[in-house]
Records
---
Amino acid sequence: MKVYLYSGQHEAGSKFRLLVLKQLGPDCLKSFANISEMLSSLALSLKSKDIVILFVETLRELEELLLVQETFDDVRLILILPQRDQLTVAKGHRLRPRYLTFIDSNMSGVYGVVEKMLMMHPD
Amino acid sequence: MDKILIVDDDERLCRMLTRRMQRQGYDTFSACTLLEGLDKATTDFFDVIFLDVEMPDGDGLEFLAKFKKTPSSPEVIIITGQGDPDGAEKAIKNGAWGYVEKPDIINEIGLHLNRALQYRREKKRAQMVPLQLKRQNIIGSGREISYCLDLLAQASVSDISVHISGETGTGKEVFARAIHVNSCQAANNFVVVDCASLPETLIESTLFGHVKGAFTGADKAADGLVKQADGGTLFLDEVGELPLNTQKSFLRVLQERSYRPVGATQEIFSDFRLVSATNQNLEEMVKAGTFRKDLLFRLQAFSIDLPPLRERVEDIKELVTYFMDKFYRRYGQTESKGLGPNFLSTLVAYDWPGNIRELSQALEQAYARAANSPTLFSYYLPEVIRINQARRLVKGKPHSGASQDSINPTAELPTWREYKDECEKEYLNKALLQAHGNISTASNMAALSRTRLYQLLKKYELLE
Ligand SMILES: Nc1ncnc2c1ncn2[C@@H]1O[C@H](COP(=O)(O)OP(=O)(O)OP(=O)(O)O)[C@@H](O)[C@H]1O
Ligand SMILES: [Mg+2]
């Protein structure tokens, strides 16, 4: 089972990517800093129940991801949003994440969820 | 005000229940014989009637149909003796809304009454609102899926809690979303709670939120999913995975619509529509003590059991067209591919344990392997499907259920659907016969859930 991570091009995202990498190891993780690069890579390789983590630092990135919502239809999505206001949260839920949190939160929740997801479908 | 009638010869019980119901604001009456009850039901307008089975002037079940035909077409809840599954079964078969065992009635009457009244309100509303269903890419037009779509339409017009069961990949999440999109909650959030992915330590704070400093790592206060679902739909997926103590907290939320975030002193209010799903057998879990019976009651106010793909093979062709169209766009090709000679029959003969998800994956694999070839041959399908087909051809007989003797080689071939319906009906008849008409036994023998078996029996009009 592969984990795909989009972490953008900002500092917080890069830090987060290193932490996830440390937790999962390089074999299990494939990460992207650019949405279109991620899309062209995922289009043909993404499988049902794969885990996709989106670390979204700006509202513009969120809008862009909403346009390609279909890509994440049958995967297990973990979404990390830039803001906590109702509108942003509502947009986030349109991607139907299986876990939703915010960039200013403690990320231990994300790690716990990824671990449990990997345990549920280890292959 | 809702009007209730209790028909029971135990005067003390009648008095107690009447008083209790009146205190809760229901206009409640009682009768000590069937004839007295029927007389009251004919001249007054009751919403719900509780009917005892053992009455001095006859068997309550024999009178059930008469009560149902009284002017208000009331919902009838049968009061059965303790541990009498046959009585319960007979009650349901005869059109009772539900049944309650005598020793439990004092504690459970409120719950049964609420559900029956809620159902009655929804039913009235559903009759008034014809719905143009947005299908949300739910493909298929066979009888099985059409029946489920009817249920979906009924559920959507109300805000009743819906439980969706079915094997993996049958479309539970797709249905949950479609309920939301077709409901009056559609403008608000559809919030997924993945009970299987949340570690136990995280589940309460994720659901209910927390105040700052509630636990180590809670640097900020946070809303929970229940709050984010306010005005919308909360989708409890894999609900069987909910730990027992969270089941208790969640039951409270359902009862009171308010809850307390972790570490908070104040209650918070949230009004959401609940949809739940699982491929686990929750009734078995209740028996094993790992799922709360009272929570199950609440979740299942309305249930939809999605059929496995092998029971709706008539939809395979439509699904194939739909997925091929999707892949051809995804793979950026200029022309869609044609299907090789045995392609569809190979798909139809397979069992599809992973259901529609597996079908979509198998087709995508075939599509990718066919690369530039304009035709999809069975050869491109995953090995397990081809092996199944090969074995079947070698044996020279249909792979599953299909009965041999019902096709005469010289007679005109029936359509696939006619043949399949015939076999299914024959199977159900056999199962009922071997189970001596007992639904529980039959459902165990057939490895079907009771709900599913009831649905099938209803479909073939095998319930007297
Ligand atoms: N009737 C249908 N028409 C078209 N696609 C469908 C249909 N039902 C399900 N699918 C597709 O099949 C896949 C699985 O559906 P879904 O996730 O709803 O299944 P599920 O019952 O929730 O499975 P699980 O129990 O494994 O979570 C999804 O990609 C979904 O889009
Ligand atoms: Mg699902």
Note: Chain B touches chain A at residues 177, 188-192, 194, 196-199, 201-202, 206, 217-220, 222-223, 225, 228, 237, 330-331, 357, 360-361, 368 (CB under 8 Å).
---
Amino acid sequence: MANYFNTLPLREQLAELGKCRFMHLDEFEDGVEALKGKKMVVIGCGAQGLNQGLNLRDSGLDVSYTLRAAAIEEKRQSWKNATENGFTVGTYEELLPTADVVLNLTPDKQHTNVVETVMPMMKEGACLSYSHGFNIVEEGMQVRDDITVIMVAPKCPGSEVRAEYVRGFGVPTLIAVHEDNDPNGEGLALAKAYAVGTGGHKAGVLMSSFIAEVKSDLMGEQTILCGMLQTGSLLCFDKMVEEGVDPAYASKLIQYGWETVTEALKYGGVTNMMDRLSNPAKIRAFDLSEQMKDIMRPLYRKHQDDIMTGRFSETMMADWANDDAELLGWRADTAETPFEKTPAGDMEIAEQEYFDNGILMVAMVKAGVELAFETMTAAGIIADSAYYESLHETPLIANTIARKKLYEMNATISDTAEYGCYLYNHACVPLLADFMKPIKSDVIGKGLELDDTGVDNARLIEVNEAIRSHPVEAIGAELRGYMADMKRIV
Amino acid sequence: MPSGAISLDGLSVDFDGRFELVDITWTINPGEHWLIVGANGSGKSALAAVLAGEGSSISGTISGVPERVCLVSYERQAELIEAERRKDDADILDVISEGTPAAEIIADASHDHDLAQELVDSLGLRPLMGRAFRKLSTGETRKVMLIRALTRNPELLVLDAPFDGLDNKSLGWLQAHLAQLAATVPMVLVLNRFDECPDFITHVAYIDDGRLLETVARDDARAMAELGKLLHLQTTDLEVPAADPSAELPPLDPGEPLVCLTGATIRYQDNTVFENLDWTIEPNQHWQLSGPNGSGKTSLLALITGDHPQCYVNDIKVFGFQRGSGESIWQIKQYMGYVSTALQWEYRVGTGLRNVIISGFFDSIGLYSKSTDVQKALADEWLALLGMSHRADEPFNSLSHGDQRLVLIARAMVKHPPLLILDEPCLGLDDINRQLVLALIERICASGKTAVLYVNHRPQDRIPGIEEHLQLDA
Ligand SMILES: NC(=O)c1ccc[n+]([C@@H]2O[C@H](COP(=O)([O-])OP(=O)(O)OC[C@H]3O[C@@H](n4cnc5c(N)ncnc54)[C@H](OP(=O)(O)O)[C@@H]3O)[C@@H](O)[C@H]2O)c1
Ligand SMILES: [Mg+2]
């Protein structure tokens, strides 16, 4: 199998990358009708499998689970997940031949193996769905011509997919139809109904392509979403300890700080996050982020380039073939870092203090979000998509660090994201070494502690203007506006 | 107990078989001035009257009551007017009696005549002194009663609704006079309106159904505020707001049960929560479900609400839907209101109160849909009923635990669902807040077409109007 993206002519590559449209609520008026009465069989009952299935069933759809034989025999966690929740569980042979829609929700690295096994058992004209396009785009999986191939990808961890549905809402979701596999032209109708079944339509659906989803998803998760937060956590912690800040305090400031400062992104983008700082602190954060952007720009470009050329997926697949040796090694290394090993103290840190004492963290978020967005859009990914894969998802990932630090983040995200995150981190830590040398506790740990908080008018206007006029802010305001139209009241 | 305290200990008192005070334990220490509050018919006047020696004691003791207790109340006023009328009836002369003049009624009772004259002037009674007492208006006879009481050198002054029917001028004067008197004379007041509570009052007693449920020190602002809300809810004339006429639920078959469980079972790998349970809830039937912790009450409810995944492997019919037949969870939820502590935990949002109530129309936590003007108006009516009109835009998560519970009950009821499920609605609430929640539920039970399913682990926490009972065992 060859990298599918690389087989396309440039013209089509660009067209696919540029596919992304925010769908309006009235496009979902048919609800789940297209899936009503159809037999939906989920392969795998992990984070996405279980939670999507619970939502689909609660939306009135017929959902059952098929697991590999060993999982059933050994009554593994996936078997327990499905049976304790009252689902029918069966072997491939039992369930696949009658399935109308097969939802492949196994880990990405198993996709080739899984799809090759199940495809011969699927009935003529059935539908195969994914929640991530890696297998199709990067591995070039060839699916039987009579089978419709779609993607419904919630832009959130599985637990959120369920929690938001139960609240009567949903999570933003990306849908796509694999053009080469839409024999009956029903792919879009099925994908829309599936998105409704998971509640995604209430939070906003992007109609995109497999290619745009993969190339933007990989870029976002490797850089700003996971990579930058991991690198930032390690560097900021070590710096604070070096500067004599109480390690327990430093640990807490970082663990909960990402969540707190990025929460501000949800409400009003980078502008709002920066506005939470005092004027002098804002100018400092701005200057730091400009410096870091210059230093890190080549790294962001390299990640995007490696993703586009398929070099990244090749590297990672080599590790898959090597029993994940690198991944597991890097995971173990992360567990041994001082930040991971120092428990957060039980001191009170007020919400504003996370901003005031975390100026460098704010600067890192700003630099990462803007660079990822700039790099993605420069590579032909449309702004809407780039926004979701950078700014929008950052607070969601930051929440996982607040729960149990980097361990939790890396456990929650996919192995693919985790692998890319470590790659980024290994390159970025040394890259920022010189930048970090002169950094003092005034921008990380203690705050500026200025007697005079005055600033130069002209300089402040210049900085505000630069923050506000970044292109991620315009598209962000527009997309958050759609959400507000749906009266999401956080 | 300091000497000079008035003390009621386990006192039960009968009032001519019409009313009973039950097991009252209460101490009024020297220097304290009490306000008694409660809903109509709660027994607040009876409690005041007991201090003046009325009623016949059934059990318990009362001690330390001074000799001269002066009581002003509607009952006393009515008795005096009745006595005057009887005097007339007894009169066999064929002269038409004018009745006893007001001046005489006052003079008969007063010890301090100078003060009496001063009060007559201050309360504007002078021109009426020659008129027959029973010819006076209610407000005027009330003033006469007050003057009688205030001029007897009382050692304890018990005033039941003294401010009712007074014109503003007299009211102002009387309040000032009482405030002055408070320095020397202990007072017990009964008031219908909490906001009329004079500054000198140091303690508040709350009575309901003949029982003294709560005593609150005046300086406990939080408890005072809660008591104020409770009284509001019990005494307001506001009705439970109507359903939204423009958004009627798809009608249910009136002959069908709301809920029908057949052989319901919840089982996990290693334990069975309950098994083979049959249960039918008919329309308009109020149920109490009780059982110890761990008996599966909440799981059973979750089978009905659809929040328990095993609802799909049980034989359950709710609102005409056989579960697992292609219905969506939102089709089920539209017919139910639901309140529980778990929901309250989930509902950790900064949404304003009005929107929290409106979210009940959509069965959502938070509000994600555009609401209509009618829905907003109904939500505001609910806030008025709860006495929270001025707080419509306050964030939900800034509310006290008890207030959150009240708002969630309003949210559950706003669409007038055929079934309202209240899972331990009083859990974690202090006494006043429990009273508040129960008062609201009682109003809802009485208000319409909603079947109430009330769950608690204390079978003695009963709500009037709930007749059916299902007990789960551990
Ligand atoms: N996690 C996220 O945040 C997220 C977000 C959006 C999209 N996605 C996508 O959703 C998909 C599923 O990811 P996930 O995070 O839900 O995975 P996961 O939690 O790791 O669950 C994977 C499930 O697949 C089963 N499985 C593993 N290897 C298998 C094999 N060889 N054959 C058959 N079944 C196998 C596992 O069960 P047994 O090992 O017991 O058989 C398990 O139940 C991926 O495509 C991912 O990219 C994930
Ligand atoms: Mg992603």
Note: Confidence is low (pLDDT under 50) at residues 485-490 of chain A.
---
Amino acid sequence: MSTETKNKQSENIKQEMINLTIDGQVVSTPKGSTVYQAAQQLGIDIPIFCYQDRMPALGACRMCLVEVEKMPKLAASCSQGAMEGMVVHTKSKKAEDGRKSIIEFLLINHPLDCPICDKGGECPLQDNTLDYGSGISRFVEDKRKLEKKTALGPLLIVDQERCIACARCTRFGEIVAGDDALKLKDRGFRTEIGTPNDQPVESKFIGNTIQMCPVGALTSQVYRFRARPWDNDTVESTCTLCAVGCNMKVDTRDNEILRVRSVENRDVNDIWMCDKGFFGYEHVNDDNRIKTPLIRRNGELVPAGWEEVLELIANKFKEVKASPKVGALGGSPLTVEENYFFQKLFREVVESPNVDARVGLSQQDKDQEAIPAGTEISLGEIESLDNVLVLGSDLTETFPVIWLRLKQGMNNGAKVVVTGHHQTEVSPHSNKEIIHAPGEEFAVLDQLEKEVLPTLKGKSALFIGEQYLKSTSRRKILSTLLKWKKQNPELSLNILEGTGNDLGARFAGMHPAIGPAGSDAKQTGLSSSDMLIQASKEPWDLFYVAGANPAAKVPAPLWDQIREKTKFLVVQDLFLTKTAEEADVVLPTLSFIEKGGHVINIEGRIQEIRAAKSAPEGLLSDAEIFTLIAQRLGTTLILDKEFSEHLKVERLPFKVPTQLEEISASTQLEEIKGEQLRLSLSQKLFDHGTRVQYSPAIEQLVKEPTISIHPEEAINRLLKEGDLVVVESEQGTLKGTLKVTEAVAKATVVIPEGFPELSVAQLGMKLSNATAVIVKKG
Amino acid sequence: MLSEKAKNSILKLQDKYPVKRSALLPALHVAQAEIGYLPQKVQQEVADLFDLNVTEVHSVVTFYDMFFEEPTGKHLLHVCKNISCMLRGSDEVIAKFRAKLGLKPGEKTTGDKQFTLVASECLAACDRAPMMIANDKVIGPIEEKDIDSIIEETKKMDGHPCPVPNIDIERGASH
Ligand code: SF4
Ligand code: SF4
Ligand code: FES
Ligand code: FES
């Protein structure tokens, strides 16, 4: 739908109000509303099961029956359009009897095993039965017996007896997630919910169906039999497992996290979350967390007291003060405040300019980067876009809930064009798709400029993702998009890159060229890859790593050299990562669920995280650790006033330049020779990063990582699916299993990041998309 | 595995509708006519031809009584069990058939693979309740005394490839 027609419609809606009477009260409601919506306006409560206001009404359950004068039968208010002059009774005898009968019908086959049902206490069926049911049962026959605990994968468990066939869960998969994960099977009273042959459900969003099910038919395996809702303590916070920053609430009981649910925020996640957010907290409870500081004695890491390790670190800091061979790495899982302290500790106390939160991410310098990650529009605006171009972004794997918002946008009429190096879950829903090899971005942009750009009408948005951004042509690509923006002022630019609190770390100044709040760094330091490269060549005094795992992000031989040449390595983390295993001192710290502070999402939105449980005994937050070390060196770390003022805005401004100057250093694409293919790095929501690794439920969703090429390329190389292959770049080699799929562009090899067992870092430092590599039999 | 012929026929069917997904039901009949039933693998193949998730195809297959996920016997007996037929005694008719065919509880197909009995949703001939379809022959109202002869008559038939008669794989259409 074009904006014109949309605007017209909304004007019409504004003008055309209709009046009806509900329970004796007159209400004026926009034409097109339902009786249910009109009743809501008056604050009249009508019970529902199948209706869910994020999806069109279905009218399947009849719970919402009301009496409408002059209509022969009771009407389902959720789908009955409100009409001029209508007289509705929601509390008449007839309406009440109708609803009573519906409850009676639903309970005929409902097992009423509330005492052992996880939904008990927060169950709409219980509530509606209490409020609208008859209170006694006339049913003396046998109830039907069905499967009561079918596990569909590691997260979801289905109780078929409890299902009231409202179709909320199946329609969520069809309408909101677009993954068709759950379906109604069979028909009539035999209707069941599930997947063919009970195979594991394929979805990244199944937690939402558990939340939406109005009965205890869909429950979580992780939360199963753990608590009654009234026993839980609930704290609202923000998910930091990706840069969407979904609003969530954490339920704990006896200081243990039992589950996570979403909190409505129309501007960010609406009412949704992804399964990483729903279930990825489990690592916080994991027994493998480091419990005390560790210190290396006689080559072994052994437990030590805080006093000792802090003193040791403080002394080291004195020794290396102002040395150019000192670096601070990491910060993405830390809060803004903690990142602020981290950079301050190094810049001001240790006097080292080498601070960088970007470990293993693309680390273009400011010129190459041209425009940093961020979005012009808010995530809430996505649902009202008319056109969207998704360029090289694998939405469901990197910004899952953005996909849900975009899908709703499509339901509202948005047209979506997708380009990239391989197909994604968004592909089947797109109106047009161009799959192309890395390095062909300009040809694709040219094509879009001719074919798509002139057709864009109304509110349009560009979403550009890592396939295009991790490229040596990034600046040039962005400059083209700015040109488009000039032609079409209604086109917004949205740069989707990074994860967790990456934007917050940058805003706090954990960047070698940028100080707090976007100021220029007083002295420009080295980027993390430059630090690591230098440390692999010549002696290096000290690395302080917090919430990062550089050992997994550089080629193994290089890491060995770095470790050998680094005199002192401090690692601060939840788990003994590969880097931590080789550290001189390891400091245990707190997870995002045990501390408070601010984080910044991809829109630049400043949100709070809050401690939902107390810290495990003897553990300190990153902020506390930094403060204690600084104290020993005579400095008090405080958040300076001016900086904290910056945290009071809702969203940081996202500054888009009107144009980008050409810079001479812009890199040429290397030629491909003979057998070479171009590399494309991909991301997976469920990878083998530290936090997923220690979250048992979602760990089971991780798919074995593969090296993917197009069938034609496989035939040319006499390779087949499942072969063990070697990928060779100029800097290194990588072995892995081959996947042959038409989903990948020709002349391309796609390798996922985030898997230690297929560590793409082995192919070299500073990898970018379009790097020429060879794939051959291993 | 579907033959190329069946696949082509399905692709042709898709061309007949403004939205190709609308061709799913006839396509499933084509697949069932060829394989005899619709195992998971075949449902997946059909799903791929339609760019649909197999969950959707499976949902459709299980909804309709005329699609089978398991091999059937040579002859198909659909006895209607919906309201009109039920009020006129279909429960007894079904029980009688089961007894005569020697079907044990939970069994649909006779041990000799001659008959599959389906207690079916409304077969759209309520005026003849209680009614049934034997292979492709509509029978009703059924009286209990007819049951033996119905079984005998059915035995003489060619059997079913599928309850939709004369599916023409070449042209991709039925009837
Ligand atoms: S499982 Fe729950 S949400 Fe799904 S149809 Fe049944 S009652 Fe509705
Ligand atoms: S989309 Fe991102 S922020 Fe939202 S729940 Fe998933 S991981 Fe958390
Ligand atoms: S809520 Fe209206 S029919 Fe289900
Ligand atoms: S109810 Fe039996 S044919 Fe309609």
Note: The pocket of iron/sulfur cluster (ligand 2) is lined by residues A 239, 241-242, 244-246, 269, 273-274, 276-277, 400-401 (CB under 6 Å).
---
Amino acid sequence: MMLVVENLTKKFKKTMAVDRLCMEIPRGEIYGFVGANGAGKTTTMRIIAGLLAPTSGKVYIDGLNIFRDPLKVKGRIGYMPDFFGVYNDLKVSEYMEFYGGLQGIYGEKCRELTDSLLELVRLTHKRDAYVDTLSRGMKQRLCLARSLIHDPDFLILDEPASGLDPRARVEMKEILKELRTMGKTVLISSHILPELAELCTSIGIIDSGRLVASGSVAEITEKMYQSGLIKIKVAEKEEEAVKILMEMPEVGELSSVAGVIEIKVSGGEETSVRVLKTLVENEIPVVSFHPEECSLEAVFMSLTERSSENENNQ
Amino acid sequence: MKIINNPILLKDMKTKLRGWRTPVLISCYVLLLTGILLLFFLGNNMLDRYSTSAFDPRLAVDAYNYIIVFQFALLFLIVPAMTATSISGERERQTLELMLVTQTPTHDIIIGKILISVAHSILLLLSSMPVLGMVFFFGGIGIMEIVKLLIFYVLTSFFVASSGVFFSTLFRKSIVAIISTYIFLGLLTFGTFFVLGFRAIIMEYVTHSSIDVTYATYLTSLFPSPVFGFTSFYFDKGDYYSFRYSLWGELASEINSQIAYETSILRFLKPWIANGLFDILASALLIFMSSIMLSPLIRKK
Ligand SMILES: Nc1ncnc2c1ncn2[C@@H]1O[C@H](COP(=O)(O)OP(=O)(O)OP(=O)(O)O)[C@@H](O)[C@H]1O
Ligand SMILES: [Mg+2]
């Protein structure tokens, strides 16, 4: 395991930013950390990066307790915060050299690493530019290169694509894919789930400081099908079809408009199969049978809406 | 500890020495010192109409006294302003955390920030060397005096820098840190004289007679004050010089004459040594406390 978090809790005066959070990230995994604004992503990541003391709980990185061995752990993690500043009187290469020095890397070795990292983040042509002349996206990429200077195994990236235009987001995603092939373990946060889905191997959804769902991308998507919607189009015999469907215990809500019946079923794929089979056996002319693929966003919304309702009630 | 290749110091040297600003500032500074010195000589020669020689070398000693006072005053103005923004400035610029996630321990960050401003004040001192050397050339002041002064100057700037960095770590806002540093240094520099006065009053009250304040009393009350340490570098070569009658000159000659009466071991603890030792110990303590406060896992918000 690259990262083990046990019962992590962080309380700021009255707000519970992180609430008994547990998670595990195996080596080589790209773990997407998703949650709404204020869900506690940044707080969790700052604690893991050793920048914030938790109220309680334990964090192990590569088997090391981060509160007992902070400097050793810092050699193994690269951290990119959501907001950061740059020194405006430094050139790009000097910026890398400065952080290299802070990580104990000097001279020729540092220059070589800088060259290869600038190539990775596509900033080689800006080598001698002053850092404050870079665009937002470039600064973000430079910050990523900075977090890689000491070749850490574990990367903590807090919304690396925030504030970027679609094109820059794609570029950032390409770079992150390259990190995956380099064998890095990555914890990456975002409040946009689909953005992470194609990049990540696993996903955890955090809401009000609690991990409400976690698993591989496939598992999370699967969950969505289960409470899915089915759109059925019939050529005729609409009323009869509605009657048959109403009798089935698996079918929940039902609506029909001009030959299109929408039903909500509980249960997985077998239920859909059974519904279709019943209709066909009763000689209903089914034109199309379409289990609506619940978008990741919908999953996210359904998983997080309960707690926001609670908040509103309070 | 990374003293020589401290990345924070290296970065600062690279950016500050680049560009035109530092050379221009240093040139202005040297010009200013030279100007003051010239005015001083001209003024004295003009007042002293009956002087037979064109230039009295004893004047050089007087000028030396003025220049080093000026040099120290400058140190106390510049170093706190530079260091009190060092950590809080990084915090405000959102670069502090990027430093704290590296393997560099917090005390190296603190020491790096201190070394930056010590380096700057040494640079200022070095650039005034030609002017001081001129005084030296005219005679009256030995090379050992200059060496002692250099040591004292470096120790003092180290302490002033440590105080600035300490308050910069303690307070989030740079402006609060700057003000606190000046107040803290002001209390040590001048507040200690109130301690001295208070002790003298109590002693007079107890013994019911007006007594001379001994060197031991001066030493134990004033040791944290750089002004006290600085009295070691005052040269009293007779009553001829205008400097003798400045408040500062009076104090220096009083303390220097009291050392002669001191019989205990304390007489070896010259003002500059006592204050220098205080600087070292206090700096170590301030660095230690700053490192702890800077450590994110210890600081509770
Ligand atoms: N320094 C702090 N002092 C007090 N409360 C804080 C502090 N930092 C965070 N919080 C609170 O903790 C909660 C979680 O914040 P956090 O920044 O971790 O959310 P997030 O998931 O990163 O949100 P976003 O998507 O907006 O970045 C919020 O309610 C926030 O107000
Ligand atoms: Mg955040």
Note: The longest helix of chain A spans residues 296-313.
